Amino acid sequence: MGAYILRRLLLVIPTLFGVMLINFALTQFVPGGPIQQIQARFEGEGDSIQNLSGSAGGGVQEEDGGYVGARGLPPEFLARLEVQFGFARIVCAEGFTGTPSLNAPECEKEAIPAAERFLIMMGKYLTLDFGQSYFRSISVVDLVIEKMPVSITLGLWSTLIAYLVSIPLGIRKAVHDGTRFDTWTSGIIIAAYAIPGFLFAIMLMVVFAGGSYFQWFPLRGLTSDNWSDLSLWGKIKDYLWHITLPVTAQLISSFAVLTLLTKNSFLDEIKKQYVMTARAKGLSESRVLYGHVFRNAMLIVIAGFPGVFLSVFFGSSLLIEVIFSLDGLGQLGFKSAVERDYPVIFGTLFAFGLIGLVVGILSDLMYVFVDPRIDFESRG
Fold first, then answer.
1. Quick one: which of 124, 133, 83 has its CA closest to 104?
2. Is-contact 201 249, C-beta < 8 A?
3. Phi, psi (rounded to 5 degrees) for 213
4. Which single residue of 93, 153, 156, 321 could bond 106 by disulfide (Cβ 3.0 to 4.6 Å)?
5. Which residue has the higher pLDDT, 59 or 323?
6. Is the residue at 253 inside a domain?
7. Residue 304 sits in which domain range?
8. Where in this chain does the record put each ABC transmembrane type-1 domain (predicted)?
9. What pTM does this model have?
10. Which of 101, 135, 169 finishes a domain?
11. Model confidence over 157-194: pLDDT tens digits?
12. 21 C-beta neighbours (distance < 10 Å), count
């Protein structure tokens, strides 16, 4: 097993490199970039460039203090932004002894080729240096940590509740296969699976969050404004009060696949010879189900838990976050893509891609833990 794990770990490096290379290459063909985004903001919002001009070293003000938005951004300012964002570098003449600057006549801007920018970026990522957001003046790591509570809430609670409900329901459906209970529950979960999560979220808000009927739950956020003043029990109740509707909306389509997978796994095992033998020996039905069938039937369901959690955690619905005013990784990813905030896009892609590959290895280890008969080593 050790050799198999080593092989999988060694495959992580080229796989992650390939993922980053493909996505980096695709961005080279996407129209617009962070510089163009700043230009568009400046032309549309005027004085909003004031903070950017200060952070980029220099400004775009006239001598009388007014801004030159009507004429667009000066080439000197755009050049400084290109250097600041890593698209270009300052190259000075041989023998230059001062501080490299675009203001120096011996220095000029030189564009950095895309291949070189990619290698520079990957070199920084290998040291876990993910850089700073272009538009938020905060490091990528701090930005992700800031948005993490929302994704943890939606991902963790949705996954746990889905497993706690779907596994017992799937077992009961397998035991009562073909009965009215099986038919009605299948219809309900399939209908729930067909309902878009964002539409269900809107319905929950209209009915239970002060729309046209009841005002039982808050409209936005994970906590109340007086969170810091609450007792420990008060904070727990306030947190659960806020997450009820968004987690419910996230859950609506999560039961069908897991429930039917559990049911079909149990049906396959129930028909096998060892189950008939256990019943012939006089074992009770519960002993047969949970002492013999459960371990084999739950192999796929339990072993897939890391992957399911990861998909829910990092795939949290953007629309649900928007509807309930939750500022999580979904909105962060969307805004970063729209703004062409490359450090956030590629930093999170590298980190989450690495986590995803490691979780894939953990899923294989879960298979071995649940059923020691599985030997990945022999497949080599």
1. 83
2. yes
3. -130, -80
4. 93
5. 323
6. yes
7. 141-379
8. 148-367
9. 0.71
10. 135
11. 888 888 888 888 988 888 888 899 989 998 998 888 88
12. 13
In a domain, 358, yes or no: yes
Summarised one tens digit per residue, pLDDT across range 29-85 is 887 788 887 777 776 654 433 444 444 444 444 444 444 444 566 777 788 888 888
Domain match, 80 and 197 both: no
Of the three residues 83, 101, 135, the one that is the final residue of a domain is 135
CA 219 → CA 146, 155, 204, 244, 281, distances in Å? Answer: 21, 20, 10, 11, 58
